[in-house]
Amino acid sequence: MLLELDAVSAGYGKIVVLHGVSLAVDGGECVAVLGSNNAGKSTLLRVISGLVAGRGGRVSFDGDDIGPDSPGRRVSRGLVQVPEGRHVFADLTVEENLLLGGLRLRSGARRRARLAEMYDTFPLVARLRHRQAGTLSGGEQQLVVIARGLMAEPKILMLDEPTLGLSPVAVDGVLDVLLGIRKAGTTMVVVEQNVQLCFDLCSRGYVLRQGRVVMAESMDRLSADGLKRAYFA
Amino acid sequence: MTRVEYGACLVVLLGTLAPFWLGSYWLDIAFLTAMYAGIASAWNVAGGFSGTASFGHGLFFGIGAYTSGALFYHFGTSPWLGLVLGALLAALAGVLIAWCGVRYSIRGLSFAVLTLAFAEIAWMFVSTFEPLGASRGISLPPGAPGLASLQFPSARTSFLAGLAFLALCQAVAWTVHVTPLGFRFRAVRENEKAAQAMGINPVLVRVTAMALSGALTAIAGTIYAQYLLFLDPRTFFGPDVTIKVILFTLVGGIGSVWGPVIGAALLYPAGEWLRAAFGGQVPGLDILFYGSLVMVCCLTFPSGIVGTIGRLVGHAKRSPTPGAPAA
Amino acid sequence: MLFVAGVVQGIVLGIILALVTSGMTLIYRVTGIINFAHGALMAVAMYLAFDLQRSWGVDPLLSSLAIGPLMAIVGWTLFQVLIRPIRRRHHLLAIQVLLGLALVIEALLLMRYGADMRTAENVFSGRFTTVLGVGIELTRIVAFIVSVLGLTALGIALRRSDWGRRLRATAADEMAAHLVGISVTRVEAWTWGIGVAILGFVGPVLADVFKMTPDMGLRYTIVALMIVIIGGGRTMLGTIVGGLVVGLSETLGLLYLPGSYGGLMPYALLVLVLVVNPRATLAMVRGR
User: Do A72 and C168 touch (CB under 8 A)?
Assistant: First the structure.
């Protein structure tokens, strides 16, 4: 298992958001995390990335316990998150955004080479390279942050609600991009409210409700009824 | 009132009796301590209770002093009348500034700097405006001694006046704190938007806070002017009083009824003693004392002395205590 | 003629103030804290230059090369020891501790150097030059040139260098900075180092331009704060604009308005800016 969570709990101050969550992601997989609002999906990713401290339980990556690792250290291991709400560096250009994504690659030459690869893969981003990231549309920004995440040559790419707030056209664009990433073999964890997208993209899914895993199935077996029950019952 | 506050009350009460046994030197210090404590409390009503922090309370202090002083000097108006007028003018200034702040979304630090800007503008204006004595100031002629003309013939009478002023400030602070008004103040302090959603009008709250705070500070200005019998732009409109008052409130416990008083009572006499005893050889010892205490308090008593004692005495479990600062 | 003199002097002053303020802007943008000890730290740098000159005759322009790096260490340490451990507890505590520090600095300066106004003359002192027909002290022009160079260097470094990019990224979005692997704490510590280092370099140069008294710290902190607010607190350009507004308004104000009325122009403009521009509002500590 590339990424494993074993009975992880987490919260903010007195409020506990995750209660003993366990999940596992194997190399090459594309796993979905579903659930309604406040189910704890974003907190889950934040705990994995080290932005929120876990309380109890164990997070391991590539066999190592990454609990004591700082967020920066986790990124250098290849554990990269594209956060919810895009979070481009608004004052910086697209190219600067991407270059910063490549911090994991130590040498400037490797970074430049990877940047060229990204421009090949995302011609739209290439066209926007000198624009200030804050001036782009939602869909364009989403592509930029996905490319920024890929710049690090991640072992696992985690995406938090990549299609939230996007127009249907933009959503299709993002889906295409994500399918391409999956085809290239990158391991992915996708948190999404858009269930259809997860069906198209992922092989397996977890459903969170109120901070607990209530379903863990392959996407084929996740029927509409089962999901409804998991979300609302 | 919490147990800590009863205790504080008692200590202050004893503290107010002590100076009567000491000489006029200590009575003078006690008078100034009482004044600072009152002004700190007044500041706290706006800054601590409602989160409307001001860096420019010199504006109100000066308005109070110069209104009563200039009217007395030019027209022989009774300082009592001047006191009331000064308080009203200062309240009006407070209302205008607070309204400006809410209307133009000037909050937090920017609002504090806004108040400072007004204080500085007033200071420079008075320093140049001849009828108010410009930078030379105005010497107030002593009138007939006694209460009617608000004169202080002895250190004892001025101390009594200071105590009366402090009592007034504490009465106001306490009343605001325990009544529903205090709840509104705290709600606006914690989260203005949420308070608005609950039907509380932030404009009304902040305007009331500044008006009360300003009026009380202006009264202090009048009393101090009568004590000094001298009007001077820097003393009254300058930043010294505001800085000290904020310091005392921070150390004592911002947001609590007795915090500012405790802070003033602890810091001011000690500071003055340091200045008097060592000021010759080692100038600045009192400032060193103030600064170090603030830093130490930040590191060890984050909620001020009152808050910390409250915690020690077992308030930790209680719902929002007066001693806890805005989280 | 008077107007030209006012404008020239105003621009010179404004650019100097902009460099002085740039450190505060950087610190605010990256760490979200207003450095209330900013002016006091500049006073430290100036008095250090004064001391070195008094004791060993070192020209302040020379000692600034040493005081700059020294203040960088001071700034870095300040962040690690005072700011970092405290701000987790309550966001206003960092402000309080900096105010306390400013007072402690004032007291120590008072104890060591006395209350008299001081200056530390450099090799250009006492001489005058003319710019556009206006007579200006040479030391002021030197300070102006240093400020122009400093602001330019800062601007270029922020735009082009790797650490400049990391700094701007951390200022733009702290969470995203974590997620691309930037060590945010290290960036913050170094920003404090740089912000205070600027004071270390420019302070000695100003030792014959601004009069030194132990209590000057708070005054300059307020001026810098005003410039940050007027300039928007976000970009170097904004800081420069803010500096020019304050410099010009004060100089022209004193020139054309009687008595001390002129001195209140910067404050009047500050009020105007706050009323007119809703985005000028600064948080006491920026929510992050």
Answer: no
Q: How many domains does chain B have?
A: 1
Chains in contact with chain B (at least 3 beta-carbon pairs closer than 8 A): C
Nearest CB to C179: which of A71, A76, A91? A71
Assigned token pair, C104: 């402690």
Report if residue B49 sits inside a domain: yes
Best mutation target among A100, A150, A160 (most C Cβ atoms within 10 Å) is: A100
**Contact check, Cβ <8 Å, C168/A91:** yes
To the nearest whole Å, the CA of C251 is away from the closest chain B CA by 15
Confidence (pTM): 0.88
Q: List CB contacts (< 8 A) between A146 and chain C.
A: none
| Assigned domain for B320 exists | no
User: Which one-letter amino acid corresponds to residue C92?
Assistant: L
Instruction: Give the integer Cα–Cα distance in Å for A38 and A47.
Output: 15
Express each pLDDT in B77-88 by its tens digit.
Answer: 888 999 999 999
Query: Which CATH number is correct for C2-280, 1.10.3470, 1.10.3680, 3.10.20, 3.50.50?
Result: 1.10.3470
Distance, CA of C240 to CA of C246 (rounded, Å): 10
ipTM greater than 0.95: no
Per-residue pLDDT tens for C40-81? 999 999 999 999 999 998 899 999 999 999 999 999 999 999
Chain C CB contacts of A76 below 8 Å = 181
* A135 in contact with chain C, both atoms CB, cutoff 8 A: no
Q: Which residues of A touch C169 (CB under 8 A)?
A: 89, 92, 96, 100
Residue B209 covered by a domain:
yes
Q: Which residues of C touch A50 (CB under 8 A)?
A: 178
Query: B24: domain range?
Result: 3-313
- With respect to residue B323, please indicate whether it lies within any of the assigned structural domains: no
